[in-house]
Design goal:
By secondary structure, the chain is mainly alpha-helical. Helices cover 76% and strands 0% of the residues. The model has no long low-confidence stretch (mean pLDDT 81).
């Protein structure tokens, strides 16, 4: 699994560098936030143990759709990050409430 992860990370990094034309070490810092948000929105528990690939895809599509909508309204990128952060907090609270009722 780690070998596959490393290989795919290398391929993704090369493709991103080619697309951007250059690469800085801190270029992809925001992608971690997007990945966590997509996972949490997709139903993945922050404490581990459950989640589906389809849920992650739906979460990623939701994040990107809302991000594009915010940017199309000519809002600053700050509001996109604010939305993603708030989404993580709300999804984590809802996840905690659902897990608490399930026990």
């Amino acid at each position: 699994a780690f070998l596959l992860y490393g290989a795919l990370t290398g391929v993704a990094s090369v493709l991103l560098a080619v697309r951007a034309g250059n690469m800085q070490p801190n270029t992809t810092g925001e992608y971690t936030l997007y990945a966590i948000a997509a996972a949490v929105i997709g139903g993945c528990s922050l404490t581990g143990g459950r989640g589906t690939v389809i849920g992650m895809i739906i979460g990623a599509a939701f994040i990107r759709t809302v991000e594009n909508g915010i940017l199309l309204h000519k809002a600053s990128a700050f509001w996109v990050q604010m939305f993603v952060g708030l989404t993580i907090v709300v999804a984590a609270v809802l996840n905690r409430l659902v897990e608490g009722k399930a026990k």
